[in-house]
Amino acid sequence: MPGGNNTPVSLVWQPVPGATGAQHYPLIRKIDTISSNSYLIQTGDVILLIDPGGIAEQSAQLAQVIEECREEQDRPVFVFLTHAHLDHFLGTQSVPAFAHTGAAVFAVQEAGATALERGDAKLTQAALLGQAIAPVRVGLPLLTSTRSGSFGVPVSMAFSHGATVTIIREETGGGLAGERISFGPGPALDVYHTPGHSPDSICLRMGGLLFIGDVLFAANPGIAGICGWDQAALIRSLDGIKALLSDGGIEFVLPGHGRVIAAADALRMFESIRSDAVALENIAELNHERAIETAAFAEECMEQVNELFTIMAGRLYYVSYVMEELGEEDMAAEIRALIKGDVIDELLEAFRSFADEHHKGGGVSIHLALKAGQVIAKLERSFDGAQLARIIDPALVQRAARLLSDYTTMLRGFCPPRELAECDLVRHLEAQVTGLTVPACSDDDLLSSVDDDSAFAGLLLQRIGMQPLLADLAFTFSSGEKQLMVAVDHDDLTDLVTYLLEDLVGTGAAAIALRVNRDGNNAIITLAGTGCTDTGAAKSGRGFLGRLSDRAGGELSCTDDGLTREYAIRITGVI
Amino acid sequence: MEITTVTRDGATILSIAGRIDTATAPALEQAINKEIEGGNRKVLLNFSAVTYISSGGLRVLLATAKKLKNPGDKYALCCLAAEVHKILKLAGFTSIFSIYPSEGEALAGW
Predict the structure, then answer these.
(1) C-alpha to C-alpha distance for A377 and A354, rounded to whole angstroms
(2) How many contacts does A have with B, using Cβ atoms within 8 A?
(3) B35 lies in which domain range?
(4) Where do the CATH 3.30.565.10 domains begin and end in chain A?
(5) Least confident of A14-18, A341-345, A462-466
């Protein structure tokens, strides 16, 4: 971790600003979901460990540092958890210095204390991550309901390892319930209840340092909605933390994952997180079942993302190639720069490797879902859809953007939007396939622009970049009805038909026929490719396309004899 | 990815097996360049065992097209799996070089 000015540095003892005689020792990890950062504090009275982490090696490393401190001056040890999620404490369960009852006293907010003592697999997220936990004895429950009414009244507690602490209930200006814990004459520790990410989340403050646990990530996809998550409580907590930071005196914010943040920067981050949190109404609980479903959707999505981004990059390379052939080297270079092909390839490859390892090692679904979320977020930043849509088929770009957005939506806990609306299927499909057979830019358009260099260049690029999918094969569209009114999701049906037509084109079909017919109360769309050179693996009508078909308002099936592939979309309820 | 190179009817046929991705595309480009620099300017890529192509792989195919555009040069692909064919078709590459169902059909016109 880079240190600048007095920014805390990892794995070094350094003074706690604003707390005379106190030192702290941060252990900052590269961000992952397995283990949190850890923070040690020592004063003349006590040794405090905040979040010992999720892996045994980390907890053992911290136990060693504590041992060295105690050799210099023996003091009681307390282990504070910013919340009782597995990645913040699991490492202690196999390290004798922590696992041995009485060697160190655990201090956790009351709800977390109850969960730990019961070995609660849901609240600790052990169930979500497919892990087992042993019950943990919590000697110092924090912010208890029994102390809630005694504001300003000191309560003393004595422990078997020799410590005596004094606890005073307090409330911050921002409305956070708090307790000030004194371990002796040295600096005290302030504890603030900040539920939302979990019911037991707390922030801890000594001097100018504020330890905040995972509240920074509480509105993130794949985290919002976990068991114990509470939107309203989160928003209140964020307001309280913002007030704490605005009051001054806090120099650095030390999160459960990631780098140390200057207080002023943290304040801006909390503003943004609050906006994200406000938007998270009615999200589904992120439990084990939803993690499995999301991971399956992640793999289906990534397969399509892989294909679409490769096609978009390829289309740009193609346009760039043609422009080079025309002697327009500068324009060719500009076009190539519109998409970061190498970055995209690396991201897609990283997901594939992760998924391979996941399947080999029986990995945890939520990790695969989160990995896909990371890759998709980076993909969204790697291309400029508006610029691309000026050169290559805008429908292709929009479909890629919708795919990324749908996945993020699902990961955040929302169902991808399905907006069924009345639609004349015959007119809808006719318009769609016309767009797939006629060039975006006609000969007349091109000829009429020859006197305007800029307009001509733009139209030429479009002409090269937007090649109609069905232009150079025998395509027919027919309907047994003049009009067929049904309720469908317009965008999803358009995407589905495009995916299916692209699939048929990929089989090398010499001819494709699209038919719309009425069968009783059903509308049937049939897409048949004949004279295929290679139909590849037979399609089942389930998976990604099946899910898309459901969202479009239809039911997809497929037949394939190696030479002909035929898709049928059945839409029930002709209006 | 594995590449097997044979000469048939005056053409160099590179048969590629596996994935053409970020990691393997440079090896494919190197193998093709070696043939072109050796004076073999009729190049057929047999993709029957190619299971995946990334944008890096597409770039190699275009770079080869640039090198083989002199009179008398020949460059084509054959035996594409449906998924790979779809990518090339939708990327627009089928208007730069020809794609044939088999080696025999590709070489028949050379």
Answers:
(1) 16
(2) 100
(3) 2-108
(4) 419-435+470-575
(5) A462-466
